[in-house]
Amino acid sequence: MKGRKAELRVIEGGLDHVPDVPAHIPAAVVEEWRGIIIELTERKVLTDAMRGSVDAYVMALHNAREAQKAIETHGLLVASGKDGVLKQNPAVSLLGKATQTIMRLAVELGLTPVARSKAVFRPPAGEEDDLFSKLLS
Description:
The protein is mainly alpha-helical.
């Protein structure tokens, strides 16, 4: 996808509570989901509209892990058809697509170091979020 990146803006009225884990989130990534939701809630940037992106992010993580397991089990190449011609393991494509989704959504959700440095993903003024300020209080 080429083109101009979306300009991020603070949305007033973010959630001030941690929502329940949706039933469709696999048990293997529930803790990832909770961790991201808690972090976004603490930074006061989580909105109801962002929850779908968080769900998609953790589902992509889950898919990437499952694809990696399949690659480790069956290899990068698998035998195809009666004659046993080698072809690319379909899990390789799944892993690539999941990784792209993970990276795109990580930026959009402010989960990368570069994205976190943007003002929109920092705590509101007066609410310091660094360890040093917490030690001083």
